[in-house]
Amino acid sequence: MCGIVGYIGNKKAEPILINGLYKLEYRGYDSAGIATIEKDAIKNIKNKGRVSDLEKTDGIENLEGTIGIAHTRWATHGKPSSINSHPHLDNSKHFAVVHNGIIENYADLKAFLEKQNYTFLSDTDTEIIPNLIHYNFVQDKKDDNFKFLRAVKNACYMLKGSYAIEVISDYFKDEMIVVRKDSPLVIGKGINENYISSDIPAILSYTKDFYLLNDNEFAKLTRENIEFFDENLVKLEKAPINISWNPLAAEKDGYEDFMLKEIYEQPRAIRETIWAHLPEISKCQMDELNFSKEYLEGLEKIYLVACGTAMHACLVAKNMLENICEIPAEVDVASEFRYRNPLINSKTLCIFVSQSGETADTIAALKLSKSKGAKTVAISNVSGSSITREADYTIYTHAGPEIAVASTKAYTSQIALLAVLTIYFAEILERNPVQVSNLKEELYCLPEKITDTLKCSNRVKSFAQKVYKEKDIFFLGRGVDYAASLEGSLKLKEISYIHSEAYASGELKHGPIALIEDGVTVVSVITTPSLVGKSISNIQEVITRGAKTFIITNQDLEGHTFDEVISIPKTSSYVSPILSIIPLQLFAYYISKEKGLDVDKPRNLAKSVTVE
Ligand code: M6R
User: Fold this and answer.
1) Does the annotation mark 2 as catalytic?
2) Model-wide pTM > 0.70
3) Among 259, 263, 356, which is best to mutate for testing ligand 1, by the most ligand atoms less than 8 A from CB?
4) CA neighbours within 13 Å on the CB side: how many for 175?
5) Fewest CB atoms within 10 Å of the CB: 108, 309, 566, 568?
């Protein structure tokens, strides 16, 4: 949550920072601000609202500085307002800070600083940071090249919580200090210029060489140089990594919204994710993992842990792992898992799924599992993200940058990769070869089948135009179709703001059916052959009570009447949500468009949830 960007070089910083903020806006869009070092002082311009509002703010066009920091905010402490926007300055106005994260002991530190006669303008936790830096700066009687860095380090020593911080000072016109702990921050290396960002795509058009900071590491940047330090300011050596993503992958490429573009990218995303590990004919290859048959045979349980959409992908994988690999699998929400003292030992394998690789709860759950002796596997879409640096092993989805807050191609890629992982385990274990070979066949056919499924777009749009004003929309499904329904319902609520719930169809009569009344829309996913009859009976029960029905199916439902039926290609039940979710993604998308909402940046949400 919150995006930070920084520049130090010989060009005017302002347009580079604004451009970076636009790309990071998915991380929060309550307010935005920018601070640059001008001839005689730090100039700080900030505003409530979006980056486009900041761009129109008086004075921004006059910023000439070649060093600057900028921020787009997802409000935690203090409501969205100009005064609570970042950057924040200390009382002397010589230090400016942008911060992504939460300072948990800010109240104590504020009281401490107030006793030293510091005053505060905002309600944020962040404003204590520049003041702590100033406090430590004036306490430090040593005068050397590291005075600025030392002040930041000593201030950070007093902080509890999570932070990615950029600091500039007009006392040090050719330096920038950055640090991270439990919040993302990357450094892009240029020629006589360097960049900072919360993520790689935001600055990918300027450089492909990146340094990744680990927790509690500091960097001191000048135009020509980047020096790295550990928490005790002992110097560190770091090698840059080269990122091969095409910067255009983070552009809309002619689509009206990132979400629509990302929905249509799914054939490619799935193809690349599958082919990276599953070459035709030969056995599944996962060089990143080195599990022996003995280790896998000894496993008592696999935990799949994630949040939101990634957790829904895990629900789909549970069936595959249990039926094909014959290993009990349990799915858990990371925020619950981390606090419920789960039974974990060396015979437990824990898999953590996170598109961004920066979700605070998922990372904490991983650390907990490691501390209890389990092996940990991270599944992420972002190279070098925090989770990949904590896990014992990492495997990547190849979805490419996902910018829209509502996850689409990352979800289907996660299911595809979990299917490949299932095959990898089953081949080592030599279990269920016929199922393995069928699943492989199906995976290869998926990209083409996704392309076919996308042809339903116009019909889905027409139905969306009929129901977009509704207050409640319900989703029903059984088995893997229930998992897809949960994801369809999440997509709808997050971008259309329509209240929506997904129920396991069999649960309907145990309460939820009381909500069904004349005209209410019920969406149902029906793809599991053995459950068709039962699912149809449940739909009949809601039709009898006046519901309008929208059915996604790969079965022949002739003889039954529904308001709209979207037919999708048949595939293995293990991975059918990769196809059945597509009409549901489009449904949410077109409802949101019909309501005139911002599809890519829904209210109150942010792409990466880096705080608890
Ligand atoms: O980056 P992650 O996969 O860890 O994110 C997890 C959730 O925050 C994310 O899937 C969220 O639910 C999406 N906005 C759903 O579209």
Assistant:
1) yes
2) yes
3) 356
4) 18
5) 108
| Residue 607 annotated among the catalytic residues of the structure | yes
Tokens read off for 461 = 């749009």
Tell me how far apart the alpha carbons of residues 501 and 474 are, in angstroms, rounded to a whole number: 5
Q: Is the CB of 599 under 6 A from ligand 1?
A: no
Confirm or reject: Cβ of 494 under 6 Å from ligand 1: yes
Tokens representing residue 505 in the block: 């169809």
Q: Is the CB of 397 under 6 A from ligand 1?
A: no
Rg (CA), the chain: 26
**What is the full DSSP assignment across 172-232?**
EEEEEEEEEEBS--EEEE-SS-EEEESSSGGGTTT-SEEEEPPTTEEEEE-SS-EEEE-TT
In degrees and rounded to multiples of 5, residue 564 shows phi and psi of -155, 135
Q: What pLDDT, in 10s, does the model give residues 24-54?
A: 888 888 899 999 999 989 999 998 989 999 9
Q: Which pLDDT belongs to residue 248?
A: 64
Domains delineated in the chain? 3-248 (3.60.20.10), 252-431 (3.40.50.10490), 455-594 (3.40.50.10490)
Q: Is the pLDDT of residue 445 over 70?
A: yes
Q: Report the mean per-residue pLDDT for the chain.
A: 94
Quote the CA–CA distance of 16 and 455 in Å, as a whole number.
39
CB atoms within 10 A of CB 39: 9
Q: Does the pLDDT of residue 126 top 90, yes or no?
A: yes
* Pocket flag, ligand 1, residue 405 (CB < 6 Å): yes
Q: Please report the beta strands in 271-420, taking only residues with DSSP state E, as ranges in sequence order.
A: 301-306, 329-333, 348-354, 375-380, 393-396
Name residue 107's amino acid: A
